[in-house]
Amino acid sequence: MQRFGTISRVATLLGIACTLLLAGCGSTSSPTTPSSAKKVTLITDIGGLNDQGFNQLSYQGYKKALDKYGFTRSVIETKSQDQYVSELTQAAQNSDLVIGVGFLMANAMDQVAKANPNKSFALIDACPAKDASGACDNLPNVAPLFFKEQEAGCLVGAMAAQMELDGKAKVSKLLGQSTIGAVGGLEIPPVQHYIAGYQYCAQQVDPAVKVVINYAQSFEDTTKCNDAATSQINQHQADIIFQVAGGCGIGALAAAKDKGVYGIGVDSDQSQINGNVITSAVKRLDTAVYDTISDFQAGKFTATPPTFDLKMDGVGYGTVSSDVPADAKAKADEYAQKIKDGSLTVPDSIKG
């Protein structure tokens, strides 16, 4: 009987141990992947996920949220502006939150969001607009995600102008013509904001600097941006080219390298594109997308999100090349501090 009792107690202890082991095994499932995660669709603008800028950076924020929350991946790559309404409609039917990437979706977003009042939407760089004027149609189910691009443009403009001054002192054989360029994609507000800040702060640092501005009328065709940048370099002797044209702008950076001058990237850190890129005007779309999805998953969706500015680290500048003199980087940092402390307000419209 004693032996039987001992065996019984051992069996009981083994049962408890197994139960604890199974419970422990069960606890290894990720707490950040709730089964109740709401589905989110990202719709890129034309240019696709591999534009090395705007769309790609937005997708990085989406992917980070996808990894955390475990909802089903749903990404639509727009091929034509004519598809905006149909793609937004399709996404609204299959998702809880739809994020549109780009100013050009403003009218389509307004139409689809009104038709789907029980679904939530977010739109990068624009608010829903009911007509061609672009005036905001404030809807309770759409979060417009705005950035102060002019502040990022200011920093790289200040850096560029200081390099021009340094170039006159023979710091670099590539510089010293007192002319810098900006190649935009289309004349839409985010592009103009970047260029306005670039122009304004460059001329604050060096009133004699000339800023040549052209638009390629594309965010995709690298040849058009290459031609625009080449013209600025050949005809105006621009020796720093700021690309504000998405995937098209990769052509402008290529032209700068081919002609032996410097380039400045946009939106994402584009220092890896070629060795002549001295820095980039950074817009943290990945942060905006990730934060929007996180708030939505937590039940904190708002149609009035804050503007992503320099003070909240929503914009800034990227990796700085070793070709940039210390005083040029210091000048950008000086202007950043002025913006943060309120002593400098950067305009968002281009002069002249």
Automatic annotation (TrEMBL):
Gene3D superfamilies the UniProt entry points to: 3.40.50.2300
Signal sequence, start to end: 1-23
CDD domains: PBP1_PrnA-like
Membrane topology, as annotated: Lipid-anchor
Keyword Cell membrane: yes
SUPFAM superfamilies on file: Periplasmic binding protein-like I
One Pfam family, short name: Bmp
Location(s), subcellular: Cell membrane
Family, similarity comment: Belongs to the BMP lipoprotein family.
Protein name: BMP family ABC transporter substrate-binding protein
Organism: Tengunoibacter tsumagoiensis
